[in-house]
Write the structure tokens for this entry.
Amino acid sequence: MQYFTTGDPEPQEVVAVLLHHVRTADERRYLARFQHGWRWVDSRTELERRDKTPLTWRFATAAGPGGEKTELRVLTDAEQIDWLAS
């Protein structure tokens, strides 16, 4: 399993969607490639509806206001199926 956090280099292009490390499945938040950058979304459907400027990797994964790092990981096979159906 690949993990990424604030300050890490941008993943290779084969990585299209990352899952924000959260406590429960109900709180799933994805960081997905969008055009030439990244977007935070709750589902693939939301990503397709978005008509906004994509974020740079550095900005999208910047530390939060309290200095907490953004922690992400690649999707498992089951999560990939959930993402495609979302």
Observations:
- Residues 48 and 66 are 31 Å apart (CA to CA).
- The longest strand covers residues 30-34.
- Helices lie at 44-49, 57-60, 77-85.
- Strands lie at 3-5, 17-20, 30-34, 37-41, 71-74.
